Amino acid sequence: MPFERACALADVPLDEGLAVDIGAYTLVIARNGDEAFALQDLCSHAAVALSEGEVSDCQIECWLHGSRFDLRTGKPTGLPATEPVATFAVEVRDTDVYVDITTTLNGVTPS
To answer: CB–CB of 8/2 below 8 Å?
Structure first.
């Protein structure tokens, strides 16, 4: 899998996401402890940036209507969203976060 550098792990706050552009996609990189996750930076309910929301308990919350998504699966864990967001494979190498955008982990096609 072709992983591309997304950002430094230290640049990703523990309580919010970081928007990064890789290829044709804007992703949100989020952390749960030292583990990093990559999701499409677009709420499936209202099409707004998830990177502007808060991160806690391995979830990211959309700032507009409060939809929550599991960082590991992209599945909604709080309404009003009912559809998952695309998730991508992540590797943390030394101090950097790398993402593979060629295939989603959960089968959701990015929009």
So the answer is: no
Phi, psi of 27 (to 5 degrees): -115, 160
Sequence-separated (6 or more) residues with CB below 8 Å from residue 70: 58, 59, 76, 77
Residue-level pLDDT at 111 = 83
Largest CA distance in the chain: 38
- Tens of pLDDT, residues 43-82: 999 999 999 999 999 999 999 999 999 999 999 999 999 9
Burial class (CB in 10 A: 0-12, 13-18, 19+), 72: middle
